[in-house]
Amino acid sequence: MLEPRPSLKAPNLGDVITPADAMKWALIIARNGAGFVAPNPMVGCVIVDRDHKFIAGGWHAKIGEAHAEADALDRFSLVRGKPENLAGCHVYVTLEPCAHEGRTGSCAKLLAPLKPASVTYAIQDPNPKVAGQGAKILSGAGVVTVCLSEARAWPAFPDKPIEAGVQIDLVEEAEDLSEVFLWTMRNQGKGALPFVTVKVAASLDGRVSMHSGESQWITGEQAREKGHRLRLEHDAVIVGRKTVEADNPSMNVRLEEFAGHVNSVVLVDPKAKLMDRLKEFNIAKVRPPERVFVCVQTGVADPAAVARGRAQGFNVFEAEGAKSGVIDLRDMLKKLRELGIGSVYVEGGAGTVGPFIDHDIVNRLHVFLATSVLGGKYATGWSDLCGVEKLKDGWKLKRQRVKLIGADIHITGRFDL
Ligand code: AOF
Ligand code: ZN
Hints:
Blueprint: H1 19-30, E1 44-48, E2 54-59, H2 68-80, E3 90-95, H3 107-111, E4 118-123, H4 133-140, E5 144-147, H5 164-177, H6 179-186, E6 195-202, E7 207-210, H7 221-232, E8 236-240, H8 241-247, E9 264-268, H9 282-285, E10 292-297, H10 303-311, E11 315-319, E12 321-323, E13 326-327, H11 329-338, E14 343-347, H12 350-358, E15 364-369, E16 379-381, E17 398-405, E18 408-414
Parallel strand pairs: 3-4, 4-5, 6-14, 6-15, 8-9, 8-14, 9-10, 10-11
Antiparallel strand pairs: 1-2, 1-3, 7-16, 12-13, 15-18, 17-18
The structure holds ligand AOF and zinc ion.
């Protein structure tokens, strides 16, 4: 069989697609689960027939519900009549099919007896209940099972080596897709803090607000929409008391296709100053009180105010302070992990972002840059409150990606923690 040329369009039923595109499409549709699957990973799965024609794609849409492979198989059966017709087909999945019976059945055990010709998965599932066991079940049943990160050729095209660049890109994308889950699983028992993503929207020269406080809007609508998607991909959004008082933001996800989604917010209010007025602010108006976490400082916040907050149903919790009125961010994150928050999204001005960078607790940084220059005379830079003394000590991004998004530039990457 000749390998078709790669394309990037959404495949139609019956289109001959490349294995790289099959995996790429699985990576794209996996994100349909954003906001609904945590603490599970987002996973996508694509099934092509023996001629490598696209038949179906599926994803893990909601915690407790069908895994990506089961969803893809359901859609496959709608087109091809019954699951048994999977025999001879090729399956592409962004994560190793699971071996265990959890909230749903095992995907490896679901696929194995149906005898697909091959299953290619992008990365191994580090969940100790899986960790290579899923692949073993499949290969034990005679299915050619390949982990893309170790593969030399696509199983559907065994005599064609995989282009190195394509392979690295797809594996990195799969790592990025599941990064919150992977971070948690790989650091289990080592006291891993929640995964921290910081987002900055700035001018080309890194300014985030005028000294007058004016900051809306520096970047364009498309970049702001991407920001909303990122809120969706985290368990909670963090916001400081000053931002709440100044801008009264909602910090919710306002995307048409995710109408009805409710996210959590963490308000950092060391002295519990907003407790009695919290109901007047949008963060508390757009979500039920149990989705509002308030971090106050031990020994500083008035216990009576804390009790009043709790009586209103807010999730008030204490963290140690670095000094009076300044929360120890590491301790706050530790407490959030204990409260079941596995990932947080930090957006805000220099006062919020700087301390997170300074504490070396940021896993991923997103910077959206408008192509305007504001200068430092009247505007604040996003990193004004953090810093290194020596050039060589600068925080360095890894696995960087750069994209144009509308008229703005989007740069993202990981910090090694
Ligand atoms: C897959 N496909 O789509 C996902 C997988 O609680 P459960 O039953 O939903 O199982 C969750 C675990 O299954 C999760 O920790 C991860 O190891 C794996 N996720 N596996 O084959 C999927 N979401
Ligand atoms: Zn599964």
